[in-house]
Give the backbone structure.
Amino acid sequence: IVCWNALLSAFALKGQLEEAKRVFYAMPQWNYFSWNLMLSAYVKKNLIHDALELFLRLDEQDTVTRNTMLSGFGQSGDIDRAKKLFDQMPEWSLVSWNSMLAAYAHVGDLSSTLKVFETMYCRDLFSWTTLLAAWSQTWNLEESKKIFDAMPERNLVSWNTLLYAYAHFGHIYEMEAFLSEMPEKSLVSWNILLAGYGQRKKFKAASSVFNNMVQRDSISWNQMLGAFAQKGYLLEAVRFLDRMPKLGMASWNTLLVAFAHNGHHCTALDLFSVMLLNGFEVDEISLICVLIACSRAGRFQRARVFFHSIQTDF
RNA sequence: ACUCUACUUUGUAAU
C-alpha cells in the first residue's frame, strides 16, 4: 500500500488529477494517506464539489483529512461550510487553526481573522503571515508594516507578502526600499515587482526587471503581458505573445481586458470567438470581459443574447 | 512515508 500511495502522491501533488484518480481507484486498499492524497488533489484543482463528495464518502477521517477539506472551503470562499466543519472537528491542530484563519483572510474578513488569531493557543510563522496577508489587502499599509515588525520570525514568504502590499497599491518608492532590505529574493519577489511597475504603468522599469530575471514562470510572462496591456501597447502585446512559451487562460483574459479597455471591442469579441473555437478554457472573468466589451461597443442586443447563452452554455 | 495551512498573473465595487 505504501508503494501505491507513493505512486498516487506523485500524481496528486503534481496536479495530475486524472492519473491520480486512476491510481486511486485501482488500488487494492486505502488508508488515511490515500484518502488525504486524493482529497488534496481535488482541493489543489479547486474542485470543491468533488472533494466534498469524496470527503463525505469516507467513513474514517483524521485531522489531516479535515484540514484538507477545511482549506478547500477556505480557498473557495465558502466561509459557512469552513466554519461549520471547524466547529465540528473533534480536535484541532495548529494547521486547523491556520486554515480557518486563512479562510477568513481570504474573504477579507479582518475582524474575524483577528479574532481567530487572538483565540489561537499558539501561533507559528504561517499564522503570522496569514494575518499579514489579510491586512495587506487593505490600504492600511502602516498597520501591515506594524504586523510585519511585530512578527517573532520572518521568512521569504512574509517579506514577499508585504512587498506585494506595496506593489499592489502602487507605492513604488516603498516597494523599492523594502526590496533592497530583503535578505533574499525569489521568483515570486520579482513577479511582485512586475506587478507593481505594471500597475503604475512604469513599463520601462517592468521590462528591465523582466529582462534581468534569471528565471521566469508563466506568471512572469503574463505579468509582463499585462504591463504592455496597461500601457495600451496592444500591437506590442500581441507580438509579445509569440515569445511566450505557454499561453493560458490568464493570458487570454489579459488580452481580452486590454482590448475591451482600449476601445477595441470588436477585436475583444473576435478573440473570444477564437478562444471558443480553439476549445480554450474560459471562466467567468472571460465572460464578464465579453459583456463589458459588448456594452462599451453599444452591442446591447449581442450582450443580451450572450448573457442568456451563459446560463445554458457555461 | 514528499498526506493538511501562509506570498505573485486576468474581471467587477458608479450614485
Observations:
- Chain A is about 75% helix and 0% strand.
- Chain A has a mean pLDDT of 92.
- The first helix of chain A runs from residue 2 to 12.
